[in-house]
Amino acid sequence: MHKKAIICGGSQGIGKAISLELLSKGYSVLAISRSEPDLKDFKTVEGVNTENRFRHLQIDLNSSSLVSSAIQEECRLNGPYSVLINNSGGPLPGSIMQATPDAFRKAFEQHVIANQILVQAVVPSMKSQCFGRIINIISTSVKQPLPGLGVSNTIRAAVANWSKTLSRELAPFGITVNNVLPGATLTSRLKQIIENKANTEQKSVSAIEAEMLSEIPTGRFAKPEEIASVVSFLCSEAASYITGINLPVDGGRTLSL
Ligand SMILES: NC(=O)c1ccc[n+]([C@@H]2O[C@H](COP(=O)([O-])OP(=O)(O)OC[C@H]3O[C@@H](n4cnc5c(N)ncnc54)[C@H](OP(=O)(O)O)[C@@H]3O)[C@@H](O)[C@H]2O)c1
């Protein structure tokens, strides 16, 4: 198995934590995002020089034709990849009634179409290795829609069903497909959601934070590294018999099983 991973949104937040976690496990990582990351953050992980194992591809996952050509070229020159992490920025928060049709189109392009293009590019070489890990970072909203996240709730359900369907097609080839569902995790995305809620509900940021924390049995927000360590397990040989699941990492917040 080639320890090579493509990590979408691998420059910040949860994706960055996954990049660092997999670098620490000896993977070579290609991180995708629109802006250049601060490369010094990826130079050394746990005292080991990882500079020559980290690369970055600057691309907008909303531009399907660019994603398609860039990823095919990438696989041809630097493949084969054994891990694909589908992850990028969440759709803008807001009520579903206020969402424009374009907001749904954009979210579909970025979260479903981009995933599909990436999967079609990496799966042939995963099949030839008889090993592959496709992990989609979605949201607990696939189990329990979250208030004030109209477009996000809608698009996450589409990704979850796309993923489940894919998992059944790819299982015979040693390729697993799973969804990790983060709860409230300390990144810029969470900050944006809290500020949006504070504005909409005319409350202070600290009041909104306290309300959110009161719904989390563990009483705290997640660290991005806590999501990354779960992803790392799903990438491993040890997780070979797990496929087609939604795995919440949410401190117990989701009310359903
Ligand atoms: N944090 C939470 O509490 C939480 C909870 C549940 C679910 N989630 C979901 O988990 C995912 C990651 O969240 P996060 O908190 O880590 O977000 P984040 O801190 O905002 O990071 C998002 C990453 O995706 C990249 N990205 C965004 N839009 C992109 C695009 N169009 N093309 C390419 N790259 C793009 C960003 O880099 P650039 O901006 O440079 O492109 C960045 O690297 C999101 O889908 C989010 O909704 C987060």
CATH superfamily: NAD(P)-binding Rossmann-like Domain
Q: Could you say which structural class the secondary elements and strand pairing correspond to?
A: alpha/beta
The total count of helices amounts to: 7
Q: Give the strand content.
A: 15-25%
General shape: globular
Strand arrangement across the biggest beta sheet: 5-2-1-6-7-8-9
* Largest sheet features: 7 strands, parallel
Question: What's this entry about, in short?
Answer:
By secondary structure, the chain is α/β, with parallel strands linked by helices.
Describe the structure.
The chain is α/β, with parallel strands linked by helices. 44% of the residues lie in helices and 16% in strands. The protein has a seven-stranded parallel β-sheet with strand order 5-2-1-6-7-8-9, sandwiched between helices. The protein has a two-stranded antiparallel sheet with strand order 3-4. The longest helix has 29 residues, at 101-129. The two termini are 34 Å apart. The model has no long low-confidence stretch (mean pLDDT 96). The chain binds NADP nicotinamide-adenine-dinucleotide phosphate (NAP). The site of NADP nicotinamide-adenine-dinucleotide phosphate has 27 residues, from helix 1, strand 2 and helix 5.
